[in-house]
Amino acid sequence: MTSPASTLETPSLEAASLETAAERLASLLTGTGTGLSDPTLSSLAFEDQIVPRALARLDPPADVWAVDGGQGTVADARSVALLITRAARVRVRAGSCVLEEEGDLRAHLLGGAEERVAALVGLGLEGVGPDTSVDVNLLRDRWEWDAVERSVEQADPGAVVLVDGDLQPDWRIPSAFLASLLARARQRGVLVAGVTKHSSLSRGGAPLVGQLEMEAADTFGPRARWWAPVARSRATERPDVAGLQVVVARLDPDARFAFRIDLPADADAEEALGRVAAISDDAAFPGYPYALSVADRLAACPRWVRQETWLQLDDLLQQAGVAPEVRERAFADRHSLMERS
Predict the structure, then answer these.
(1) 324: domain range?
(2) Which residues 6+ apart lie within 8 Å of 314 measured at CB?
(3) Structure pTM?
(4) Which label site among 39, 234, 246, 312 has the fewest CB atoms less than 10 Å from its CB?
């Protein structure tokens, strides 16, 4: 059957809708709104004024750990899917990388109630009810924070443990976990810090970090380290809730970007950032901790990893007596197969 010629033409964008969106976006990006927010963490109390301050680089910590998590979908039958996750760890001592640990690839089957309960049992989380929803965010975070916990326990006194992202585990992980972890880190003299590459912090609806980058450049010039206190956890007397502080910092004169950095509430932010700045001067990634960039690479689940896992899964299904046509019908990507170039 021949398709109508009109279906082969490049679809045109409805001009009015784009113009309206562009006008609204321009208003946000160039406006002077003052409302501060973070959609990912509503328990923050923001500073009345956010003003960049000069930052001095201090001596680097002798022991640095970095943790990052990765994920990937291996097979998706919509009603049931097989996912993989892993948590990578990197250790740098006295300036030399002494550990590059990819972390074990863990397979997770997600689907109906039975698979959800099985996944929860596999996570081994106390205080999580059997009706708790399960998705890849929980699966990845569970083992990423397990790696953070092991790093804190193995770190030397005075060490820094860096986490990719904010210091807020998935909302389904009991809050007492983070409070206990930060308390143990404090007792051992270990600083735990979270570094977010692309922050959701906003002011007046516009990205806050970008605004602070321009304001700091006007104040200190284009080649300056700086930091700005942004928010703190709202006051609470609950011992099972960890107190946090959120800052934005540019950690190297050659850095293109500043980053959101989360710290424990009782940490000396300027001192902590000065130490992190000393390990954020790699030529390839100026302004971003080198150890975290290595952990990010190790944690990734690229296409070849997912394909290799699928081949192992396919072989196991064949051994279990699942016919090839059954496997193909379950996991074939019909959408992709039906697309025309």
Answers:
(1) 303-338
(2) 327
(3) 0.88
(4) 39
